[in-house]
Amino acid sequence: MHTALDTLALIGNTPLVRLKGPSEAAGAEIFAKCEFANPGASVKDRAALSIVEDAEARSLIQPGGTIVEGTAGNTGIGLALVANAKGYRTIIVMPETQSREKMDTLRALGAELVLVPAAPYSNPGHFVHTSRRIAEETPNAIWANQFDNIANRRAHITGTAAEIWKQMDGRIDGFTCAAGTGGTLAGVGLGLKEKDESVTIALTDPHGAALYDYYAHGELRSEGSSVAEGIGQGRITANLDGAPIDTQFRVSDEEGMVWVRRLLAEEGLCLGLSSGINVAGAVLLARQLGPGSRVATILCDTGFRYLSTLYNPEWLAAKGLAVDSGATSA
Fold first, then answer.
1. What is the pLDDT of residue 322?
2. At CA 143, angle to CA 137 and CA 146, rounded to 5?
């Protein structure tokens, strides 16, 4: 193991693990990138570092400046850690529907937290628009703009995709994950296609998001709803623009929770619901690609961030996701 020269060098180069249960269920090889191993315990550390270093390279922020962002939580946590390491302040705008752990974490990291009611993107009070206005009104501040700032997906083209390719010795048949900003899906997709055009890139969409219908039928239309945090998108962001999506799956919260529970009970991995949805999608993709195929996905963040929600029986029952014996579609 080499020694990191500074703490920001700890972001990325995460381990890749073969998942036993999903591999058996798919009759294939399912591998997952352990993004909870980043310092901020999520995949969003990569985008956070890339966005800040891009702003520095373009002289958009000066020493002692402020980074403002609207986020479901994980990008804010990544930005707060990067900002602390570089001497910046952070102001994070977040929907008040997100988990208590994310709010407590952001405050503990020293970020100024602004909570707003959950609202559709068309509403000027939406967390993204609110964060942009705060950035415009704050001296020496940048708006990270993770949804439409393509420094986000660049982190995954040069980092995540290259790491997966190397860790799998260039033997990869498919990759899938859900889209929040679209940076991970588009970036890994573009990066892997550069290496091998035949790698199948698939969107795994939660219910309530509109991208499944967009890629399947050319129409942004959503059905149902999901309690998964940080994923699900109703528009084509700049990060998603030109993403090389070959096929698409729609996965319910119930299917995702089956894998969240199984990965914890059988493999000792405590994960969030987006990871469960990604694993469910990877199983579907591997089944489509056939026996023995090799598919990769993303374990987005740690389940310790959702103890009050996903790991709370009362909360699950209130959301209609009451704990069952486990055996559904998986």
1. 77
2. 150
